[in-house]
Structure formats: structure tokens, C-alpha cells
Amino acid sequence: SNRINDPALGEQILRDGEADLVTMARGLIADPDLPKKAREGNTEMISHCIACNQGCFDEVFKLQPVTCMVNPMAGRESEKRLLPAKTPKKVLVVGGGPAGLKAACTAAERGHRVTLVEKDQKLGGQLLLNRLIPGREEMLTAARDLISNLKALDVEVLIGKEADPEFIQKLSPDAAIIATGAQPIVPEIPGIEGENVIQAWDLLEGKKGVGTKIVILGGNALGLETAIYLATIGTLPPETLHFLMTTGAESVETLNSLLNRGIKEVTVVEMTKKAGKDIGLTTRWTIMAELKRLGVTVLTETKVIGITQEGVRTEKKDGPAFITADTVVIAAGSRSENGLVGLLQNVVPEIHVVGDANSPRNALSAIREGFEAGLQV
């Protein structure tokens, strides 16, 4: 039990004789039809549990009903019904992040003719930022599952296309779902435009590299998870550890030190009293424990007042300080990217704004809003 979220994995465990019985719990919250899809050989349509805990454990610990990031129907089966549309419409979805993908899938399931337009060359939005973050790789599975559903539902997808008002007017949709996401905030700090300053998004997308000493501006989920990624650079991956252990190439003490310390020196600077306030209750403690294990310094109640080529000037209750850094990474939050909404008021008769385009939050909120917009059109 635990993390068996795919029928092939469960089948392999049984075939290898590792267990007589396997169980699934969260896997069936994420997709109650998983056994049926497996029996019918339709496994590519399974919505896999990605162990994000946002809708299940986090809600249970707040004494709230269980729901699910990848399955917005969970816990609301009697409230939300996926019924065929009375009048099929021509629906345009702008944005291929989690909100847009779910909106397109839901609208198509109901019988609408759906076109999804994404200005980037790939679908998935901010879910793809998790690719490099240890322990968060399964977030990409949510994107892959949505894309698989999109293809099966025969949604028209236009990649690398800017959905400007002229294009939309020519397409003439009956309804538009705006899921254009958000853009990272650039705080007003002297020196923020320096060559040694990069956005966390660019780092996690593999567009930018870093030096040896790094300061991260922002102790939110993005900042702390970026810190974990950077702090694990140079640590031993599982395959290498296995090889070195089985061959006796290094002492246990040496291997232990190489597991827990990488080659980067990482400091996170947060203005408020508590870092990770936007992280779920059942996940935050694991992230804070990882940061401690990896030797990441987290400074709270610390304000950045300037950036130079040598590092960061800060201010705390006990006075000013300076942190030496080769690279400064911005993780200061994001702002909605929804300028298209105002331009379409007289172009499209029905408009819905979902996900971060509505208000920057987490993937659970984005997928839920995309789902509900797909029900409403």
C-alpha cells in the first residue's frame, strides 16, 4: 500500500511475488474509474494520484471533507454533475496550464467543440516547473494525464500561437475561457536588474544557471522548493548510492555526508515571521526538514534592501547585514496575466476567467476552476 497509483505497478508487485495483496486509497480518490479503465485496457485515460496531499490529507487535518487536485468531483459527486450540454457551443480556451487543460477537457466531455490555444511550445504551464524539484516530479504526471485526455477528446490544440483579439474575433467562439496564468513579480529593490539576478521560474525551466553561493528572495513554496533543488545539486542520487554501497567503494560515513550536503550554499530570505505559509499542513514539515538536512539557511523577518554584484544587503530587527552571493534568485510571488479579458468584452458573448489568471493560488484551485468553467459554458 501507499503510492500504488497505477494498475501496472500493482500488477508487477503481484507478479514478482513481493506481496499477496495490494491496496489503493488515494489512487481511487483521484480516479474512481481506475479499475474499470484497467479492465478495459484504457489505462492512458487514468488520472493518477500524484501524492500532492492538497485535497486529501491537508483537508483532513483541517477537519474538512476530502477532495482531490486531479479530481474536482471528489467529495462533491452529488453537487457537480458532468452532464451533456443542452446546446453544443464553440468554446475557446486560452492557456494550456492546469486550469486551461481541465477546462478544455471538461467542456469537450460535455459535447462542446473546443479549441485550446497556448502561446508557448508546450502544454502544462507551471506544473512543468516541478521537473527539477526533488519529491515533486509527479506533478508532471498531472499535466501528462490532462494532455492524454485532451487528445482522446479530440480537442483542437494550437501550440505556439498568440490568442490576440483579432485571432479570437476571426475564430468567433460562443464562449471563451481565459486561463492565461500569471507572471513572476519583480520586487522594487535597488540592484534587482543586475546580471547576477534571475527568476526562479527561469532556473526551474532550465533557462538559467547559478553560482556556488545563492540567495533566494522569498520563503514561499516556490522559494523553499527552489532551495531544495539547489541544495541537492552534487548530492548522491539513489543509483550511485546503491553502487557505492554494494561495492564498498566508500565508507558509510562518507556516503552519509555526500547524501546530506551538495555543492551549493543556499540562503532563503523571507520578510515575514514564518516561511512556507502557503504550503499545506501535511507537506510543510517535510519541506522544512529537508531544508534543515541539506544545510539551507532560512532567514525570517529579514528584508532585502539592496543587491550588488557581491551579494545582498538586508535589514533585520537587530540591524543591517550583508549576505555574500554569486546569484540572487527571485521567488517573490506572481501576478495575474489577464489583460486579454478587457479586450474581449465586446468580442465574445461569454467569458470565464480561471486559475492564476483569476488570482494566483495553487494547482488544486486552478484545476477546480477550470473544471467548473467547463461545466458552466
Q: Can you give a write-up of this model?
A:
The strands form four sheets. This protein has a five-stranded parallel sheet with strand order 3-2-1-4-15, covered by helices on one side. The chain has about 375 residues and is an alpha/beta fold. The protein is globular, with a radius of gyration of 23 Å. Helix content is about 35%, strand content about 15%. It has 14 helices and 15 strands. Helix 5 packs parallel to helix 14 and helix 9 packs parallel to helix 12.
Helix-strand layout with pairing:
Layout: H1 7-15, H2 26-30, H3 34-39, H4 57-61, E1 90-94, H5 98-109, E2 113-118, H6 139-152, E3 156-159, H7 165-171, E4 175-178, E5 182-184, E6 197-199, H8 200-204, E7 213-217, H9 221-232, H10 238-247, H11 252-260, E8 265-269, H12 281-293, E9 297-299, E10 303-307, E11 311-316, E12 319-324, E13 327-330, E14 334-336, H13 339-343, E15 351-353, H14 363-376
Parallel strand pairs: 1-2, 1-4, 2-3, 4-15, 6-13, 7-8, 7-13, 8-9
Antiparallel strand pairs: 5-14, 10-11, 11-12
Could you list some keywords that capture this structure?
15 strands, alpha/beta, 377 residues, single chain, five-stranded parallel beta sheet
How many β-strand runs? Answer: 15
Radius of gyration: 23 Å
Q: Indicate the mean pLDDT.
A: 96
Q: How far is the first residue's CA from the last residue's CA?
A: 40 Å
User: What is the overall number of helices?
Assistant: 14
**Order of H and E elements:** HHHHEHEHEHEEEHEHHHEHEEEEEEHEH
Helix content: 25-40%
For the sheet with most strands, the description reads: 5 strands, parallel
Q: pLDDT under 50 segments (min length 5)?
A: none
Oligomer: single chain
Shape: globular
Structural class, judged by helices and strands?
A: alpha/beta
Approximate strand percentage:
15-25%
Query: Strands across the major sheet, in which order?
Result: 3-2-1-4-15
